[in-house]
Amino acid sequence: MTNSLTTHPIHPAVPEDAAWWRHAVIYQIYPRSWADADGDGIGDLPGVTARLEYLRALGVDAVWFSPFYKSPQADAGYDVADYRDIDPLFGTLADADAMVAKAHALGLKVIVDLVPNHSSDEHVWFQAALAAGPGSPERDRYMFRDGRGADGSEPPNDWHSVFGGDGWTRVTEADGTPGQWYLHLFDTKQPDFNWDNEQVRAEFEAILRFWLDRGIDGFRVDVAHGLVKEPGLPDYDAELHILDGEVQPGAPKPPMWDQDGVHEVYRAWRKILDSYGEPDRILCAEAWVRPQERAVRYVRPDEMHQAFNFDFLQAQWRAADLRAVIDSSLAAADSVGAPSTWVLSNHDVVRHASRLGLPVGQRRPNGIAADDPQPDRELGLTRARAATTLMLALPGGAYLYQGEELGLPESTDMPASFRQDPTFIRSKGEEIGRDGCRVPMPWTKDAPSFGFGPSEASWLPQPAIYGDYAVDQQDGVAGSTLELYRELLRVRRERQLGTGGLEDVDGFGDDVVALVNTGQGQRTLVLANLGAEPVALPAAATVLVASGALTADGLVPTDTTVWAAL
Ligand code: NOJ
Ligand code: MG
Which ranges in 362-474 belong to alpha helices (H)? Predict the structure, then answer.
């Protein structure tokens, strides 16, 4: 192959001094599982603060924290009882301030999770709603309805909970009689707010200001596509899949997702964030919305800044699928002037080092149990490294999930008695759920709880093999996954791949994803080989980073991604 590649532009560069969120790499900390300072087996904010240098050395730009607010923890903190306080499990507001101050001193931005679709049933507003009774202004802040049937004993409509079971729960009124029903798209302990209520809108605007005033750089918005429901709450007798975003072809548009009215909320929020000046404070949508043309409406210029690209996360390990999703997501994002925001793992999906070790083409499972078909660990890691190497070469922002930089596999041998995900409980074990990707981090192989905390305690059991993946086993070890991530982030920054233009390269065949990133006016060839045969690089290409070893004669083997200077 010669050095003159035939390429087609698929995405224009943005200026190198573009706003930080257009190209940032953001690391997700799942607070209960990152670092435990007090030894109670649950990660906490002092634990985070003590280890922030690790993230600085990794080379990320920002950290996103899953919820650390006061919460009964019915959904690991996505059931918030007080949006303005920290749960004692994680520390205090002073601990949060100290953590933010240190992160900022290290040059890391801090993004917190905002959960506006629902609160905890232990939130004062919900308790007031229960006490105040039908028709009260307190009830109007949530989705209370009378039941159907002569005695109101049937739920108001047929919506299911995303976690399994009914989407409605009936309350007992103050006088002891069976009463109204309230909607919860998730757990019974997560009542949905009524976003037609002005007090709800005002309250969340005040919550935004509370955290912005504390110096927070942005918000990841939970279930961003769910706040507004179709008027009249029409029946929708289908299983609800938020986590895979799938709507059966031909099925009517779900009345609880992606309603047009939701955008007004984000326009109001954007104005508040913009009023804080530069550098930009940001909103990132967790919106499981298809197709891409609908999804990018959340990142129109006067709405949010970022939206997770879940189509990329869900793509099968096939070159054609990856090429198609890269092309279509950049085109959709470009149509509204937004960056694409790439992601491969988070606290809701099977870790990609395991997901990619499952047979290609099958439906992605929601959790893996010991008696399920097991992922091929070695293949999964090889592909995960190749997938990340591809992802971090793409223009736009990217999110990393704690532990993926170690190549951590999903925990698949967890005894059912440990599982805490409401999905597992509400579906009576039919859905395994998300505990397997939430297991505490291994830091040190030969230490209690693999160095997660000072004691043996760990709220979910750590698989024995996690010791081999510990940070201290990989730090400074050439070829380790941790060193690969550090190298990728260093070269990505050096060559400004996050703001580069992207070109598609011809001539490498169907099983290869071949792209050129034009960051910093240089040409970086990105080649992911998903085919069975090794692939030759162009003669003058100089390899910068590779997700795995090349063959003895310098070819790119199967399931390997290379960055090369042209
Ligand atoms: C999405 C969050 O990522 C998930 O963990 C949570 O269970 C649901 N939203 C409900 O808040
Ligand atoms: Mg702790």
Answer: 377-391, 422-426, 471-474
Measured from the Cβ of residue 366, the count of other Cβ atoms closer than 10 Å reads 21
Segments in the chain below pLDDT 70: 1-3, 239-251
Atom number of ligand 1 nearest to Cα 186: 10
E-strand stretches of 213-334: 218-221, 282-285, 306-307
Q: Which atom of ligand 1 is nearest to the CA of 79?
A: 11
Strands 397-401 and 542-546: unpaired
Of 222, 348, 405, 421, the catalytic one is: 222
**Which domains does the chain show, CATH number per domain?**
1-16+501-566 (2.60.40.1180), 124-183 (3.90.400.10)
487 annotated active-site: no
For strands 178-183 and 82-86, give the pairing. Answer: unpaired
- Give the pLDDT of residue 375: 98
Two tokens, residue 216: 């927070």
Number of neighbouring beta carbons within 10 Å of residue 385: 25
266: region left, alpha or beta (phi > 0 left; psi from -120 to 50 alpha): alpha
pTM: 0.97
- DSSP helix/strand/coil, 435: helix
Q: Which residues pair with 373 in a beta bridge?
A: none
Write the pLDDT tens digit of every residue in 460-492: 999 999 999 999 999 999 999 999 999 999 999
**Active-site pick, 36, 75, 258, 286:** 286
Which residue's CA lies nearest to atom 4 of ligand 1?
348
Alpha-carbon separation of residue 242 from 423, 513, 556 (angstroms): 12, 29, 37
Amino acid at the residue 117: N
Coil, strand or helix at 115: coil
**Centre of ligand 1 from the C-alpha of residue 90, in Å:** 19
Whole-angstrom Cα distance, residue 355 to residue 344?
Answer: 10
